[in-house]
Amino acid sequence: MKRALLLSLLPATLLGSLPVAQAATFKSKAYPYTLSVPDDWQSKKVPGVDVALAAPETGGAVPPSFNVSVIKVLPAMKVTLSDVRLLMLKQAKENVKDLSVLGDADISVSGLPGHLLNYLGSQSVSGQPTVTMHWIQIFTLKNNQAYILTFAAPQTSFDQDKQIANKMFNSFKIN
Fold it and tell me: What integer is the mean pLDDT of 34-39?
């Protein structure tokens, strides 16, 4: 069951033919990557995040979000994907109540070795009551930089939102 769920979330899934909102290409000003984002998603300022995007709010519900963080790593530290994985899990344990890891797998990201974490838990978002959320984090390393892509959505809307997330994950390219 977990393997089937994980496989349904992998960016390699061919979702290109699914209908979703029109996409625009986002090109980072600070880092050499691009990705496609739905035209109606809004950019938000979030400290420590290169780009933070959120779907339009509907009826007071927490909208899905997609963030890209880039962390410079010192070559002397010899950081590995395993090191980044451990950091992501540590941060999740510190910030997510009732953390449940659904998937943890090696994948390819923009043609590079990468890793996927898929987890559930609850969190208070923007001062709202605690919400059960679902996260997918995908990360890779290139040129002494860790690229961390994070998709988050309320568990209640995750199944419909994951199609958009997969399109964004699939479109991520490091130039």
Answer: 94
